[in-house]
UniProtKB/TrEMBL annotation:
Keyword annotations: Coiled coil
Ranges in coiled-coil conformation: 235-262
Entry's family note: Belongs to the CdaR family.
Species: Streptomyces albireticuli
Domain GAF: 88-239
Family annotation (PANTHER family): CARBOHYDRATE DIACID REGULATOR, DNA-BINDING TRANSCRIPTIONAL ACTIVATOR ADER
Entry-linked InterPro entries: CdaR-like_regulators, CdaR_GGDEF, GAF, GAF-like_dom_sf, PucR_C-HTH_dom, PucR_C-HTH_sf
Name listed for the protein in its UniProt record: Diguanylate phosphodiesterase
Gene3D superfamilies named among the record's database cross-references: 3.30.450.40, PucR C-terminal helix-turn-helix domain (1.10.10.2840)
Length: 640
């Protein structure tokens, strides 16, 4: 070895030791060689200096590798420490991503988790990201680099993602990568057991090669992240189980008291029913139990929205004024129980109110059965007034007195029937009769099922109005049976028990009014004869037998040839005329109403013109024809 002179001996070697001691960059290790050459060192000395440089660089690399390993081990230790004191999963995952980014010297690091329900993987944590679109990315299984890692459970790396054709590029993923400006990307799977739950990434905004050590390091962080997620899930399950146990404990503690309380309520309601109590007795009993005010509401007083919700759910529901429990049976509303003074109800109290509503419905049905028996007797009296006008008035008055019906005052006669002919089944007629009987009893009147509908005989005061009474009755009965009800009114009859024949005449007029409403398309409405103008005069006259012949003569004189033609040929000229006038005398609208071709309409109207004369469409003739059509329809409906 040459001497120790700085120029020729130990000087270069000492320089390398100094470079190592100060952690100089790799390019600084070339300076001693350049200096030796500049000083004219011998070839042997130059060779020795070159050898020393290589040794120094090897030592430097070993030192760098040791420092890097120490930093990695320190980061992994810190991550394990975080896991040991896991409180916030997001905070732990963010720490893992930041450490991975720092140790790999990456511009960004991020972590995605698989969504089994959606069948894709979504961004959970990012560090170094600046793009909002990128932070909200979702990758389908097999899509992009991350989707491929999630699908195959293998790490993937690329020096330039957008140029790498190994991956399935999508517009959404590529747009997010461009927004973030990423070029080189490394992704490793987060594995839990035999499955992949997500992907951990490191990425640079320039071309870069990730070596095996860096891939292994990122995989170590991915393993820690998977453990953190699994630990967090186990903690959540443990907390949930503890909460369930606490709830079960509380339920068990309250169970005996709840059962005892419910049994007491049940016994009290049962005893009340057996003693023959009424609906208001139930309300008073529940008031004491629930420490609030409970009242029974008749059907017409029920708050409609709340009652409908209660009927639909079969439960007590919250209302502005408290709680509402519908009282119903067989789809029919019988009333409601309303609780006030208790903004909140526990399940037992709510069930108590619902049970009280069920008991109330049973009581209502029982009382209704008894009431229906009485109403049948009242209906028989009304039938006798209509069918046997020659009955002894004294006997009629005695029967009325027993039924608490004062038939020595003016009364209206009203005929009611459901507006929908297809809904006129026995159950619907029974429901209509039941509702009408109840309403008649509350007004000290009579009701009977008759002619497919119901007839009512109601007291008529000096300030009452037949039309208003008919319309009000149509609304009340329609609400009770949940279907439109049409009502025709006649009278008043001065004293039904003294003039029973007048009741039969008024009933015939009321029926004609009802049929007139139906023919005129006013089903579900109520009216008296005076509401129909000229038609009403004809109805009243026909009911009393005065002008029935005139009505027939008017129909025959006005549209008789058309009616006869239809009768002989089986054609539809009358129906075509009806549709023609209803459509504003427009053939186009007429053919739409009849579902025929416009040429068919033209041919029929031409036939009408030949039968009625060329002036049949003049205003005066057209008015007469329309009136005759209405009267013809009414007489047909009444069977005249």
């Amino acid at each position: 070895m040459p001497g120790t002179d700085d120029r020729t001996g130990d000087g270069p070697f000492a320089a390398y030791l100094a470079l190592l001691a100060h952690g100089a960059p790799a390019e600084a290790y070339e300076r001693p060689v350049l200096r030796a050459r500049a000083e004219g060192a011998s070839p042997d000395l130059l060779a020795a200096v070159e050898h020393a440089k290589l040794l120094a660089l090897r030592v430097r690399a070993e030192l760098e590798d040791r420092r890097r390993r120490e930093a990695e081990l320190s980061a992994l230790f810190a991550t394990a420490h975080d896991l040991a004191g896991l409180r916030d999963l997001d905070a732990v995952l963010l720490a893992i991503v930041r450490r991975a980014r720092s140790l790999l010297g990456a511009d960004a690091a991020y972590l995605t988790l698989n969504d089994p329900a959606a069948g894709d993987t979504y961004m959970r944590v990012t560090d170094g990201s600046v793009s909002a679109r990128f932070q909200q990315l979702r990758l389908g299984m097999g899509e992009g680099l991350g989707g491929l890692v999630a699908q195959t459970a293998r790490p993937y790396v690329t020096e330039s993602y957008l140029d790498d054709l190994r991956f399935q590029h999508t517009r959404t993923i590529d747009s997010g990568v461009r927004d973030e400006g990423l070029v080189a990307i490394l992704g490793v799977p987060l594995e839990l057991g035999s499955g992949v739950i997500g992907v951990l990434f490191a990425a640079d905004r320039r071309a870069r090669v990730f070596d095996r050590q860096q891939i292994a390091l990122l995989a170590s962080f991915a393993a820690h992240a998977a453990v953190a997620i699994d630990t967090a899930n186990l903690l959540a399950e443990t907390r949930s189980a503890l909460a369930e146990l606490e709830t079960a404990n509380a339920t068990a503690r309250d169970r005996s008291a709840t059962i005892e309380r419910a049994a007491g309520i049940h016994d009290r309601l049962t005893e009340l029913v057996l003693r023959g109590g009424g609906v208001h007795d139930v309300a008073r009993a529940v008031t004491e139990v629930l420490a609030g005010h409970v009242e029974f509401l008749e059907t017409e007083d029920c708050p409609a929205p709340a009652v409908e919700r209660s009927r639909a759910d079969g439960r007590a529901v919250r209302d502005d004024d408290g709680w509402i429990a519908a009282v119903s049976a067989g789809g029919e509303l019988l009333g409601a129980l309303r609780l006030r003074g208790r903004p909140r109800l526990d399940p037992v109290d709510r069930r108590t109110l619902e049970r009280a509503a069920m008991v109330t419905s049973l009581l209502r049905l029982a009382f209704r059965s008894a009431d229906e028996a009485e109403q049948r007797v009242r209906g028989e009296l009304l039938d006798d007034l209509i069918d046997a006008p020659d009955r002894d008035p004294r006997l009629l008055r005695e029967r009325a007195a027993r039924l608490r019906a004062a038939l020595d005052t003016p009364h209206l006669v009203l005929a009611a029937r459901t507006a929908d002919e297809h809904a006129d089944a026995p159950a619907d007629r029974r429901r209509l009769w039941s509702a009408a009987s109840h309403l008649a009893a509350t007004r000290h009147g009579l009701a009977a099922a008759r002619d497919g509908g119901t007839v009512l005989l109601l007291p008529h005061g000096p300030y009452d109005d037949a039309t208003r009474t008919a319309r009000h009755l149509a609304q009340r009965l329609g609400a009770a049976v949940h279907a439109p009800v049409t009502v025709g009114a006649a009278g008043p009859v001065p004293a039904p028990d003294s003039h029973p024949g007048a009741v039969a005449t008024a009933y015939a007029e009321a029926r004609r009014c009802l049929e007139a409403l139906r023919v005129l398309g006013r089903g579900g409405d109520g009216a008296a004869a005076e509401d129909f103008g000229f038609l009403g005069l004809l109805l009243t006259g026909a009911a009393h037998g005065h002008d029935g012949a005139r009505v027939g003569e008017f129909i025959t004189r006005t549209i008789g040839p058309v009616v006869d033609y239809d009768t002989r040929r089986g054609t539809a000229l009358v129906r075509t005329l009806d549709a023609y006038f209803a459509g504003g005398m427009s053939p186009a609208r007429t053919k739409d109403a009849l579902h025929v071709h416009v040429n068919t309409v033209a041919q029929r109207l031409d036939r009408v013109g030949r039968l009625l004369g060329p002036d049949w469409q003049t205003p005066a003739r057209a008015l007469e024809i329309q009136l005759a059509l209405r009267l013809h329809g009414l007489s047909t409906a009444l069977g005249d």
